[in-house]
Amino acid sequence: DVVIRPVPIRKLEESVVNRIAAGEIIHRPSNALKELIENSLDAGASSISIAVKDGGMKVLQIQDNGHGIRTEDLPIVCERFTTSKLREYEDLSTIQTYGFRGEALASISHVSHLSITTKQADSECAYKATYADGKLVPAKPGGSSAPEPCAGNNGTILTAEDLFYNIRSRKDALKNIRDEYTRIFEVASRYAIHNSGTAFTCRKLGAPKADLNTLHGASTITNIRQVFGAKISNSLVEIQHKDQELQAEFKGHVSSAAHEMHKSVFLLFINHRLVDHSPIKRAIESLYTSVLPKGSRPFVYLDLRIKPEDVDVNVHPTKREVRFLNEDIIIAQIIDCIHNKLLSTNNSREFALQS
Ligand code: ADP
Ligand code: MG
């Protein structure tokens, strides 16, 4: 008989562990971009410019005018679990920033060639640093790995090149660069719509014109028109609701029942995070199915704010999903609010026709 013996158990090399972990956080260029946009917003940027080559696989660059990174922090900024945002686990329940785990830059540095140029407002010059696998490396072979002084604007430029150069299977799976660019544009434009206090641009490197160009201080609806066109933005009605007891509130813009679209569009923000939340989506879709002509789909921009201690943002490595307390009650309130709005706008339209 064949005896099957166990293979010895060994501890994985740190670099292998880090690369595997990085692959779980950064699935594709658009995940990296989401993390980078959130860092720029956390840094108080009022302007964010994104430049992309080959769907972000070749180059993914983001420039902001935020507070920059302290020069003395540059050596550790790309190590795993280094953050300026969280100190104690308990802080998670009141956290006001997008970031808290200190994993994004580390992850990106493990699966791409990453460089950071950053300048604080009160600093004489900018510093440029190059990273591999969490650590500073020389920009050129044989050079020094110390951050180099250089000219630059206040704020930070992050450039990730050759994403997944060291994970071949992942790189091969992401061959459709048009599809990747679409996802990048989706993330950038959604954050642009939600953050009207920040000007966003998104362009393909070398293209004469940006695909996204929102202005600092433009209204939400102006930004929706910029991205989705006048036909959709004109069809939207505003919703708003506040629950004192749960300390939850939401507002948004949703398509009125009169307008037909062939693809659902959801821009769902929970405490400013762009998330997927299937129960909310399903509930809204089924409401619209009962109200809209057959086969047409809703457009929904929803800005939901919940007491931070009622939300768990740490359920998914990409933070793409969140859970919150009293989900059923809050979803029912969203549905009621949209339903009433649709009824009242449709009635007034009928009314207008009759009179
Ligand atoms: P986290 O956002 O969870 O703290 P990251 O790996 O995304 O972790 O970033 C690590 C740290 O680098 C942040 O805590 C922040 O201090 C700094 N940082 C990253 N991006 C920027 C930026 N665009 N501007 C200023 N500081 C930044
Ligand atoms: Mg971050």
From TrEMBL:
GO cellular component terms listed in the entry, alphabetical order: MutLalpha complex
TM annotation in the entry: none
Subcellular localization, as worded in the UniProt entry: Nucleus
Organism domain of life: Eukaryota
Record-annotated DNA mismatch repair protein S5 domain positions: 224-343
Lineage: Eukaryota, Fungi, Fungi incertae sedis, Zoopagomycota, Kickxellomycotina
Similarity comment text for this entry: Belongs to the DNA mismatch repair MutL/HexB family.
Keywords carried by this UniProt record: DNA damage, DNA repair, Nucleus
Name assigned to this protein: DNA mismatch repair protein MutL
MF GO annotations: ATP binding; ATP hydrolysis activity; ATP-dependent DNA damage sensor activity; mismatched DNA binding
A biological-process GO annotation: mismatch repair
Native organism: Coemansia reversa (strain ATCC 12441 / NRRL 1564)
